[in-house]
Amino acid sequence: MKKVIIIGFLGVIAYYLLSAFASIPFGADLIKGVKDFYLDKSPNDLKVANVVTSIVVNFRGFDTLGEVTVLFLASTALGSILYRRRSHDSGLNPQRTAPEASALVQTGAKVIFPFTIMLGAYVFIHGHLTPGGGFQGGAIIATGFLLMLVSYRKFFIEHNALTWIEAIAGSTFVILGLLGLVYANNHNFLENFLPAGKLNDLLSGGIIGIIYVAVGFKVGAEITGILDTLLTVKETGLDPEEN
Amino acid sequence: MTHTEIILTVISLVVLIVAGFYAVMQKDLIHAVIATSVISLVLSLVFYLLQAPDVALTEAAIGIALSTIIFIITVRNTKRFEDK
Question: Which of A35, A146, A149, B48 is the residue whose CA sits 20 to 30 A from B72?
Answer without folding.
Answer: B48
